[in-house]
Amino acid sequence: MIYNVEQTDKIITQTKNWIRELVVGCNFCPFAAREVKRDSIRYQVNSATTLSAAREALLQECIYLDQNPAVETTLLIFPDGFPRFTDYLDLVNAGEKLLRQKKYEGIYQLASFHPLYQFAGTALDDAANYTNRSLYPMLHLLREESIEQALAHYPHPEHIPDRNVNFAREKGIAYMKMLRDSCF
């Protein structure tokens, strides 16, 4: 499917809502608010539904970031691609392999978000999964150097995942689901 401007704008608006309400609002990423304020996040909607097409889209985003240093990060959104979480995990693995093959390892890093995200060893209905449950399957391409700089000035960054899990579990699955679904 090719998205028209109205469809693309709607998907981007919904994704921005999710970033504002969950990622920044719940402080899941303590570094995201700065980039939202700076408007340095690129939102790229892509119609890929196959690994090869998604890999190509990811490579194009790496090239884009190479050429546009003012853009800090890209959210590559696949509204119609990879609805099954297992297929999405194949995409994440393919993306990480692509970064290694194209010599982008150490330059860019992938973070992963999916509507059915499930951490290994957790139940499907564990509220902790909402720390990575997005509205659409997406790959988050981050600049490794920026991550290192941000972490250097943040006390105990190793505690961020545990803090996020505890927050989500304290709020509960009904709250986390409602918060995410309100972004549509």
Polypeptide structure, described:
This protein has one domain (5-181). The chain is 49% helix and 12% strand. It is built from seven helices and four strands; from the N terminus they run ααβαβαββααα. Strands 1-2-4-3 form a four-stranded mixed beta sheet, sandwiched between helices.
Q: Quick gist of this model?
A:
The chain is an alpha+beta fold and 184 residues long. It is 49% helix and 12% strand. It has helices at 5-24, 32-38, 51-67, 85-101, 144-152, 160-171, 173-181, and strands at residues 41-45, 73-77, 108-113, 138-143.
| Number of domain modules | 1
Low-confidence stretches: none
* Total number of helices: 7
What is the CA–CA distance across the termini? 20 Å
Average predicted confidence as pLDDT? 97
Element order, helices and strands? HHEHEHEEHHH
Q: How would you classify the helix and strand content by structural class? A: alpha+beta
Taken from the alpha-carbon principal axes, the silhouette is globular
**Spatial ordering of strands, largest sheet:** 1-2-4-3
- Major pleated sheet: 4 strands, mixed
Portion in strands? 5-15%
Oligomeric form: single chain
Q: Could you tell me the radius of gyration in angstroms?
A: 16 Å
Helix content: 40-55%
How many β-strand runs?
Answer: 4
